[in-house]
Amino acid sequence: MTTIDREEPDMHDQGEPERMRRFMERAFPLCRSITGDGVRATLDLIAEELAPAAEALGDRFTWERHEVPSGTAVLDWTVPNEWNLVRATLDGPHGRVLDTDDCNLHVVSYSVPVDVELDLEDLRPHLHSLPDRPDAVPYRTTYYHETWGLCLDQRTLDGLPPGRYRVRIDATLEPGHLSYGEATIVGRGSGDNGSSGPGEFLVTTHICHPSMANDNLSGIAAVTEAARRLAAGGPLGHTIRLLFIPGTIGSITWLANNRDAIDRITSGLVVAGSGDRAPATYKRSRRSTARIDSVMARLVAARGGQIVDYYPYGYDERQFCSPGFDLPVGRLSRSLHGTYPEYHTSNDDLDFVDDETLADTAGLIVAAIEAVDREPRFVNTVPHGEPQLGRRGLYGSVGGAITSKSDEMAVLWLLAYSDGERSLDDIAALSGLDRAGLEVTAQSLVDAELLQPR
Ligand code: ZN
């Protein structure tokens, strides 16, 4: 992969990493799941962080917390009952074994309420631990199967004496709502009805995980910070739509309820796992050649990151890229999910996330959106076979004409890749040619009516 050598602007202001850390420290203890008051409290914190954006942009900024009733049919799914945890404890012959007031990973998310006494052998099937990581509490869920469970570290489990145990899971699982947050920064290009203009850039992140920092408070913090930065810069041409949604059921719910908005999405990013110390990873959209794919390939490669092809597991890109929608939405992460040992355990704590890395992810989101919005693009008007250049006066001594081998190469690269998706910056990266020279040549091709600005 060749990259162009351009000066990167400073991607964050002075207080940004500290602000993101403070946000994560406040949101970390909340007991989030795919529904419930922990989600709502998290959305309230996000709204607080976005208040300066709302103030700066007036009616060009909107924030809405949606509440979708349990039982609502969404695509092939149904919005589940709402789960709220008060507290879960386990007491044994020697006293208290665990308490969700210490760590909310101790309860399997969506456990049904119980208050029961039982022998250790009958309790064991409900206990979850990680033999390979004996000091960590695992993260487990049971969204769509009614049962209950507790999670603890292997060392504690190994030390449990035989005898009677009392399990108390004080929780409710009953009809309620699925909550998600949606912010929009309305673009300059949008008409009053929001239907015209260059379209929408979608940024989404999942808010359903309880106390884990990289997965996914980091994604929430990075997207929130990116929104603040974009708002401070004033509206772009694109409308930017930011979704803070529970994983899977949240994106399915949004897609089901926003069929009219989907056609306006020209690019998008799913942001998750944004703060561990690994270089950035970009996962291409299912289309693989969308505008966002070219932009991210270039930006991530310039930072020493990796680009991976689409595959049908991971986070909400699975829904946005499902064949019926096939949206131009890729995913931005650091380490790939599941590949680091702290993943889905209590070791994914606030120390696992690096402030500078997180700020870099926020900067990448902003850079991607600005690139999609601002970089010049063209469409080849004679795309079937190569156009005959000689009869258009492109060879010769007139200004802007092809007078050197590099000019000829610029013409060939511009004609080959001006598909309306790739920009001059992308073509410079692909070809290794100087961007300024490409811009001059592009203008002469526009004058010759071989390229049309997009
Ligand atoms: Zn996860």
Structural account:
The protein is an alpha/beta fold. It has three domains: about 15-80 and about 175-375, Zn peptidases (Aminopeptidase, 3-Layer(aba) Sandwich); about 85-175, Domain of unknown function DUF2172 (Glucose Oxidase, domain 1, 3-Layer(bba) Sandwich); about 375-454, Winged helix-like DNA-binding domain superfamily/Winged helix DNA-binding domain (Arc Repressor Mutant, subunit A), CATH 1.10.10.10. About 30% of the residues lie in helices and about 25% in strands. It is built from 14 helices and 19 strands. It has helices at about 15-25, 35-50, 50-55, 120-125, 155-160, 215-230, 250-255, 260, 290-300, 315-320, 355-375, 405-415, 425-430, 435-445, and strands spanning about 60-70, 75, 75-80, 80-90, 95-100, 115-120, 125-130, 150, 165-175, 175-185, 200-205, 240-245, 265-270, 280-285, 305-310, 330-335, 375-380, 420-425, 450-454. The strands form five sheets. It has an eight-stranded mixed sheet with strand order 1-10-12-11-13-16-14-15, with helices on both faces. A four-stranded antiparallel sheet has the order 5-4-9-6. A three-stranded antiparallel sheet has the order 18-17-19. A hairpin with a 2-residue loop joins strand 4 (about 80-90) and strand 5 (about 95-100). The longest helix has 20 residues, at about 215-230. Zinc ion (ZN) binds next to loops.
Provide a quick synopsis of the model.
The chain is of the alpha/beta class and about 450 residues long.
Q: What is the terminal-to-terminal distance? A: 25 Å
Which fold name corresponds to the CATH topology of the largest domain? Aminopeptidase
Q: According to CATH, what is the class of the largest domain?
A: Alpha Beta
Q: What is the strand content?
A: 15-25%
* CATH architecture group name of the largest domain: 3-Layer(aba) Sandwich
Quaternary state reads: single chain
Average of per-residue pLDDT values: 92
Strand order of the largest sheet: 1-10-12-11-13-16-14-15
Classification by helices and strands: alpha/beta
